[in-house]
Each structure stands twice: as C-alpha cells, then as structure tokens.
Amino acid sequence: MKKTASIIFRSAFLLILGVVLGVYLGRGGAGSEPFGLSLQHNDKMSKVLELVQYNYVDSVNVDSIEGATVNELLQKLDPHSLYLPPKQASAVNERLEGGFNGLGIEYTLLRDTLVITQVYPGGPAAKAGIVGGTRVIAVNGKIFAGTGITDSAASAVLLKKEKQAQSVVITALLPDDASAEKSFSIKPGRVPLSSLDAAYVERNDVGYIKISKFAATTNADFKKAIARLKVQGMKKLVLDLRGNGGGYLTAATEMADEFLPKNKLIVYTKGVHEPRTDYFATDSGSFQEGSMAVLIDEYSASASEILSGALQDLDRAVIVGRRSFGKGLVQQQFPFEDGSAVNLTVARYYTPSGRSIQKSYSRGVASYRNELAERMRKGELFSAEMSLNDSAINKKSPYRTSSGKPVFSGGGIMPDIFVPADTAQSTPVIIALTDVQLFTSYVLDRMQPLLHAYPLADKFVNSYSPTDAELNDFMQYASVVTRRFPKEELKASAPAIKTLLKAYAARFKWGDSAYFHVVNKDDHAFNQAFAAIR
Description:
Layout: E1 3-4, H1 11-22, H2 44-55, H3 62-75, E2 82-84, H4 86-96, E3 99-102, E4 105-110, E5 113-119, H5 124-128, E6 135-139, E7 142-143, H6 151-164, E8 168-174, E9 177-186, E10 189-192, E11 196-202, E12 206-211, H7 218-231, E13 236-240, H8 249-257, E14 265-270, E15 277-280, E16 292-296, H9 303-313, E17 318-321, E18 329-335, E19 341-350, H10 365-369, H11 371-378, H12 384-388, E20 417-418, H13 428-435, H14 438-451, H15 457-463, H16 468-477, H17 479-482, H18 487-510, H19 512-519, H20 524-532
Helix pairs in contact: 2-3, 8-9, 14-18, 18-19
C-alpha cells in the first residue's frame, strides 16, 4: 500500500473518512474555547470512573474508558455527535486547516527500494529538490535499499523524525540522473495542502474543478483556480463534489457566494439553543454568470450538500449524479485541555427553499451507518426510479426551486440528472491491482522513458493511448494479481485498465489535475454534466 510521510488521507480512504469529516461543520465562535464536562465528584459518571481507577481488580486505562463512555452517551443523541481522542481530533483539525507538518512526500516500496511517488509543492522535500521517481538509498546513513525493509519499518523511521521535527538526511538517486547518489537534508515543516484535487479546462471553454473537502483554504484555493481557468478561456464550469464528505460550514457558504448574486439566501441554521442564523451571498462572487453543473454522489455529505442544495434551490446549477449522503446536522467542536474534543450537534441546516436533507437516524447508529449499503442492495445506485421510490425521500415534498421546480427533502440532495454507478471502473480486477499499487509500480518501472517524450500534460492527455502491446506487458508485469482472475474478467476490465495506466502516468509527472483529466474522458457522469451545460 502506498505510504505517506505524514498524516494524509487520499483516494478510497477519503471516501471512508468522508462522513467523519462532515461531522466538523462548526468552526470557532464563543463556544469553542477549552472547557470541561461537568464531571464533579457527585456526578455518577465521574464517581464510577473514580471507583474503577482506584478499586478495579486489574490495571485499567481510565482515559480510554472515559472516552468510550462519553462517546456512547453522545451516540445516543445522534450519529454525528462524537468524542474524538487527541490524535483523531488533531488529525481532523490539521487536515481542515489547509496543511500539515511533515516532509511532504508519498512513497512506495518497489523491489526492496523506497521510491518517492509524489512530492507536495511548497513542502520541505520539494524545497530541498526531491522529485517524483527518486529512489532512496539510505536515510541518516542507514541503508534503505536491498535490506528487506518493510512498509512498517520505513514508516517508523520517517514518521518518528517528523514527530520529533528532526532533520532527515536522504541519500538517493534522482530519476533524471541515476548514475550518481545525492544527499538531501530535509527538516520536517509546514506542508501546504490544497482542498482542490484538480482544475483544468476541457475542450476550450468548460472548466473542471474537483474539491475534496471544505477547509479553511478552500475559498482561496478556488479563487486562484477559477482566475487561472478564465485566462485559459473558461466560460462554463463543472464542479465535482463526489466523495466530498464536508468540512467547515463557513467554507461552504463562501463557496456558494462565488456563484450567487447579492442578497440570495444560501442556507440557514437553527436549534433549540441556537437562534436562526441566515447566510446570504454578497456581491463578490468570481463566477456568477456562466452555466454550471455540480457532480454529487452518495459520499457527498454535509457542506457538499449545503452548496449543492443552495445552487439547486436557486436554479443556479444543474445537479448531476446520485442522491447525496443526507447529513443536515451542524456540529461545533468543543476541545478539552488534553487535546481530545467533543463534536456536538448544535443545530440543523436548511436549504434556501426551507428543506432539511438530514436522513433519519431513528433506528440507531448501526442502521444509519449501513444506509449506503442498503441503497446498493436495493438497486438505488443503478436506477433513477429506485432512487425516487426510496422511502427516505418525501415524495410529497412542498419545496420548490426559485422557478417552481419540485425538490425533495428527508434524505439527501436528489440530482436533476441521475447517473448510475459505473461498476466497470471498479471491477474486482482493478480493485486488486490498485490495492497492491501495481499501476504506480508499472509507471515507475516501465513508463518513465515514454513520459520524457511529452513535455506538456495536454499533449499527453489528448494524443497518447496505451496500445494492446502495452496492456499485455502490464498484464504480465502484474501477473501476481491477474493470474487469479478468469480471462473473461480480465478482458472486461481491459478498457478501464488502459485508462488507469494512462492516468497514473499523468499523475506521476503532472499531478492530480492531469490524472482527473484522463479519467474524466471515460467518466459517464462527467460527460453527462459536460453535455448539460454545452
């Protein structure tokens, strides 16, 4: 599995964490300073913990019990009120604040050698001159290549240095000059982390921007990207929120403001202890006129639903994809002195038409967590009719968009254009190949000479296509996996494998924008969104 020298969440792991990130909507405010729950000596919870600590037969980590007890209490309220242990609270907050502390590299092990696959722009490794494809020979004088090093051993060394903020001396072979070893001294430091995965122009005037989370820097990242795309001729926009589990409420409202005219209601929140708060657009939007489509799926949650719901209610964008997750609860984080925190639901949010999109959690947390699997089992991910017939959707909804079009409440944002899940892009063959990083390994091993022939990403994306001979070579290279599958399954997966070979090669040399530029060529949802605004 690909490793990252820092706490970073990517790709499929992002989807798993999406709902967790969506928990953290509230940001700052008078209620966010450190505080203590009322655990006085006369409180039952405090007394029981004290009894366990001083009287129980075995040694017990009381802190862990306290966390479990508090979390059990919170989960009886709703699925998104949570207790976060210090490490988890730190990881979530760090990720949403637009960066992390570390070296700023991702790496994989290739035949007993640690190879750097990605270098984060602006991070310590990038500043030191490290580039993708660098093969690490030694770390702090200790040989790393050809010694049987494992993923866990490599992670232990690098992550320990990051945690201690100690400089790391890497001896390596650069991809463009493998004849001479070079040494780099890298001190862990701040690594900027954009919340935009991709931004490019497709076919002259349609821009594509993919946002992975709503973080502190999202609006600034978007403004920079949209300005660059406009210079390149962009007049229309496809905004991709698939897999985006949410983030800060303010980041979502700032983003909506980019597309809406002054004084339009974006969202409002209210709760028993929280008076109604309305969020309105200003007149500072950077893309108020051009046609746009928004891509969502069942992993688009929370802040993603605030943005897509506002744009749908106000007839500003066509929503394309599948019904979103259905999280309409607002959390505020209350930190403790030990670094742990409670994410407590303090309000519900409502779209401009007045609808709540929170799905029911009346059957308990386990049922709530399993709801996406139920959608799959019932066929909702593959049928627009099944999606509309789902009992979670209020089919007699009184809510209307600004133009009078009916919209639904009670279980997520229902798209205007339904696009079924594409199983051809996630076959068992492709999942198995991805799990052991064979696409990345093949690019590092076999495709770097090919990439030298393409100085620009656009030329590679638009003119290169893997041949059948290259596909066969990859199948042999990956035989440890491919030999386990019948020929019929391999043949059915071949088109998607070719696309991913090209996409991983593009990512290696030009980054995530090039990766998505490649995969979107064959993405049915993207093509539907593209057609909707043409």
